[in-house]
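Bump. Still looking for Calcineurin-like phosphoesterase domain-containing protein structure tokens.
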Amino acid sequence: MVGRPQTHLAMLEPPVRQLCAYAVLALFVVFFFSSALSYHFDDTVRSFARFPDFSQYRLVQTLSPDQFPLDHPTRRVIIVGDIHGSYDPLNKLLDKVSYTPSSDLLIHVGDILTKGSHNGSMDTLAFMATHNITGVRGNHDQKVIEWRAWLDWIRTQPGAPRWLEHTQAKWATHDATSLSAWLKAEQRKHKEDKKWWNKIPAGWTLFGDHFLVAQQMSEKQYAYLRALPLAIHVPSAHVFVVHAGLLPSDPRYKHTHPRQPLAHVPRLPKSNSVRANESESTQALRTLQEQAVLSEVPQNTVPFNVLNLRSILHNKVTKGSTGKPWSKAWKHDMLRCAGFDKHSLATTKPTRELLPCYPATVVYGHAASRGLDVKRWSIGLDSGCVYNRRLTALVLGPDEGANTNDFLAQRSDEDDDDDREDKEEHGDPDKDADDVEGTRNQNKVRFGDAYHGRLVDVSCS
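Sorry for the wait, here they are.
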């Protein structure tokens, strides 16, 4: 970090030197912001430059052991996949897992709204907001937040509320089947309203699903959505919950490159390193390294990526399905974590480049096209309920059991799985079936260092 300028010395510098210094600083600022934007694959962000902050992002929420009770004798953690307004299947699923609000922690992975029925979205939102259910934002939830912020803003513009009400009433009585075609026709017919149409960000659809939920929801429900973070971090369990995904490293560099957070052991603050025992130091170092994955892998610092990421293609992140699923990259790096002990790093296959790190687990949704996607160190829960498939929950708790060994003892078995996976170019969720045990409705999965979870699902048709 640059130190505070010494003004008494700066006053003595020749004007030319000061001008050069300002020019260099200006170039650095331009480079920094242009570099940050280069990690972002959303083209519509450019239209936000002339608007207020509609996004209202909350980046990370950290949960304590009490808020994510893996070791409690009577409490469970239940994580539910993408709901998309499928309120009846949600109730069926909660009944099936015998959800008890007084003792169980319920978490959703985002996209609780839209794509399904409007009434289902409103009922789901009412349930989540009333009970203040823990969760993260999905890309569809984010659009609802942005539309509500836009509505609050546009209503402050003189003449705008009347235009909006009049235009919506016209759409409600129109027999057009295509909303987008009708909107384009309206803009062509009423050029005197151009100033209002120009106040809608590019790529947004007025009167669409997201708009209608945003318009109808209460202030309490809006506050609930705004409070949802992009990511949940549980240091005690070494778990991330996100909607779409995270990268373990910057794909433009080797995973062993010094700039990668998992390629070097973080430094403890001096106050911690003196007093902490080995176990406490390891826990503290893991927490620091996990935080670095969120803050130092540049692609993870772009909210749009965390909400929309699916694949890596040509060393860039993409929201499409073409390329390598990000979960493959996550598993690749996690299986190379060998702890912080130098001896552990030295005793391995000579062809395997290990990393001075401990693995972390990501639970996510978003990728319905890939279905239930269980890998070691990542669990994708979007099983396509909105497409009349299934709604899935991951249940963690005292009855689900624990592994007898920690991840270091399991590494030899997992290495064989990873060797097979290294031969695949694009990945296939079915190839990771060995990470799931049991029948479809009672699947047992490995979770974290030393736990098991159970996958429970219900039909959405």
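The longest strand covers residues 451-459.

Edit: fixed formatting.
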